[in-house]
Model the fold of this input.
Amino acid sequence: MATFVVTDEFINYLGTKKIDLSADTFKWYLSNNAPTEAGSQVKADVAGITEQNGYTEWTPTVTWAETGSGTGNWRLAVGADKTWTASGGSFGPFRYAIMYDDTPAATPTDPLVGYVDYGSAITVNTGETFTLDFDSNFAAFVAS
Done:
């Protein structure tokens, strides 16, 4: 999997308690618009692709836990991979997979956590699949 980039404002949202890593609901969406580490703060800053033909936003199981007892290293991790299959037509193009917090009802609404850049646009044609792959080393955010 490509490298996950944490947005600058995400750290601020943690520090000001606008994001609760243990209780909030996080989602992933696909976009062909480039987010930036410093400038993209909320979902409205980076439009997603149209939900159609087998693609919808995804709500994964996310955990915030210490990587090992007494290590002092904490990880926001996604529990499983996500595979979308194009059906009845294609979806895309997209280049970015973006994670955001869907819980806050007040400002900031839908704050971004970060994103993955696949390097070039991807279109998934009917019958093809795209997998958002989280290997054992993936962590959206690690603090130590």
